[in-house]
Design brief:
Strand order of the largest sheet: 7-11-12-17-16-15-14-13
Shape: elongated
Largest sheet: 8 strands, mixed
Number of helices: 15
Helix content: 25-40%
Strand content: 15-25%
Length: 550
């Protein structure tokens, strides 16, 4: 991983590519370490100097008769000493011309501060992605010169309270989202920010903006991906990230609400289990009070056991752990799984029907209700709206393979599709069917998990499916094996110790209905819907093979 750097010393580093990691992170030289220590010491001294300057300014202003109208609030006033109605506060996003000449009280971050001589200072306040320009102007008995000096000395990203009068300027305000100003009467600092290791404005720039500046002979700081993640708490404040994680919240909400409307209910399965839930070596192993255990690779086993408990239709939203060493743009070691399991009457097509209706409903809702969030994302990461059909396209695996062959791409007809083949097929499907969202089903049995039901007419194929967005897989689903002896046979064939999953297999010995389900990664859905190039952009605090903090 790249070493943290103060914003003023960040180089024009290219954004990390598909894997989002620095290959030589483990071999930092002693010289580089000393250089980094010097940078941190310089940063510390700057912070001390700023704090001392603020203290001197506070002392100098102590004789100001209007001193009670501004200043850093002492801790005691922030310890819930006052109980009051929060309706007295106005959100920045609610500041409109309708409030002209009204007194308002707002709280937010000091995004930018600019002094104009000694008698005026501008401060842009940001809250929840909205910004408003506030003006402190010297006026007798209202605003003192010391108060203007205090405002000008605030550090960027500090949390401040402002009381003032709403005014409507005669010209558009280009530096803020709200087209009104607040004439400052009182200002208090709730939490003063130290010198920033990265600037939010730098982190919010698009590649196109940086490229235009470079062509014009200007230099702009490019904050690379590892540096962003090192200071994620600052990176999350950018408009694009505010939009991304609000979109992600909507996706989870729609997932839950749609399934509840279709007769599903939510469960919460354990994440500490005795054996692998998916098979293979990509499992985090641990000691559980002297017994070997692992973190669940999915809620698969307990989803099925819940169906055997007569739950009928269930879903879960929870963490999933994969210990695979995948240094790609779309893999994480921990992600949020959206999982579904349901009884079926006749066919796994019933599960695909749920997928179809769920995601078309989700996409429609997002397009109708998240335009503000999409605009915030597009300003930094431009993308085209997802193309999808009212009724989702379904192709068999064999049909997909044939499309690839017809396009001159040779693939193993009984193997899985690699990343390049998936992307190529997505391109071919878009050209032929004008959709970037489709289902590919009836996969070869050999490439599916042990609990997947074989096809009735050809045991080399399975009653399974994957779902794709923009040429990348987001969902895996199937009909499950519900016959216990056959399930044990399939597990042994995959090298799984049946003893470690005996309770799972035994749950089918007391009568189990035919059933199926699917799982999808929340972060991957948002990444692909928004056309982003790396899943770390949609993971709040990513966990990959090289990152365990922050």
């Amino acid at each position: 991983m790249s070493e943290p750097q103060p914003a003023s010393e960040l180089s024009h580093e290219p954004e990390n590519g598909e894997n989002g990691t620095n290959g030589d992170a483990a071999s930092v030289s002693k010289k580089a370490a000393k250089k980094e220590a010097a940078k941190q010491e310089k940063l510390r001294r700057r912070q001390e100097q700023e704090s001392a300057a603020a203290a001197r300014a506070q002392s100098a202003d102590s004789e100001d008769p209007l001193a009670e109208n501004y200043g850093d609030l002492p801790l005691i006033q922030l310890q819930s000493m006052r109980i009051a109605d929060v309706k007295d506060w106005t959100e920045v996003g609610a500041l409109t011309e309708a409030l002209k000449d009204k007194q308002v009280q707002i709280r937010g971050r000091s995004q930018t501060i600019r002094a104009v001589g000694k008698n005026m200072a501008f401060i842009v306040v940001r809250e929840k992605g909205f910004t408003v320009q506030c003006v402190a102007t010297v006026q007798p008995e209202i605003v003192s010169r010391q108060m203007v000096k205090y405002v000008a000395g605030l550090s960027r990203e500090s949390i401040i309270d402002i009381e003032g009068i709403v005014s409507v300027p005669g010209t558009p305000i280009i530096s803020a989202s709200q087209q009104v100003e607040v004439q400052v009467r009182k200002v208090y600092c709730i939490s003063r920010a130290a010198v920033l290791p990265i600037n939010v404005e730098d982190a919010a720039r698009s590649d196109a903006e940086i490229e235009r500046a470079n062509q014009a002979g200007e230099q702009m700081v490019r904050v690379n991906q590892d540096t962003r993640l090192n200071y994620r708490v600052l990176d999350l404040r950018t408009p694009a990230n505010q939009g991304i994680f609000r979109i992600q919240s909507r996706v989870g909400t729609i997932f839950r609400e749609f399934l509840l409307s279709q007769g599903f209910f939510e469960i919460h399965s354990p994440k500490l289990i005795a054996g692998s839930s998916e098979g293979g070596a990509s499992v985090f192993k641990l000691d559980y009070k002297g017994q070997p255990a692992c973190l669940a690779q999915s809620p698969q086993l307990h989803k099925q056991m819940s169906i055997c408990g007569d739950f009928g239709r269930i879903f879960e939203i929870g963490p999933v752990f994969r210990a695979e060493d995948s240094y790609t743009h779309r893999h994480l070691c921990e992600f949020t799984g959206l999982d579904v399991e349901m009884e079926i009457k006749w066919s796994y097509f019933e599960v695909m029907d749920v997928v179809d209706k769920l995601f078309v409903t989700m996409f429609n809702y997002l397009n109708q209700n998240c335009e503000k969030e999409f605009d915030a994302v597009r300003r930094q990461y431009p993308f085209e709206p997802l193309k999808y059909l009212p009724e989702t396209l379904r192709l068999t695996f064999a049909e997909g393979v044939q499309m690839l062959k017809d396009a001159g791409v040779e693939v193993d007809p009984m193997g899985d599709l690699n990343t390049e083949a998936e992307r190529k097929l997505g391109q071919l499907v878009l050209e032929k069917y004008n959709t970037e969202f489709y289902i590919l089903h009836r996969y070869p049995l050999a490439v599916r998990p042990f609990y997947t039901m074989p096809c009735h007419d050809n045991k080399e194929y399975s009653n399974s499916f994957d779902v794709f967005i923009r040429g990348e897989e987001i969902i895996s689903g199937a009909q499950r094996v519900h016959v216990p002896d056959f399930l044990a046979e399939r597990a042994e064939a995959r090298g799984i110790d049946v003893k470690t999953i005996s309770t799972y297999i035994d749950s089918f010995r007391y009568g189990a209905p035919p059933h199926g389900g699917f799982g999808v990664g929340l972060e991957r859905v948002v990444m692909l819907f928004c056309g982003l190039n790396n899943i770390r952009k949609t993971s709040l605090f990513p966990r990959d093979p090289l990152r365990l903090a922050p």
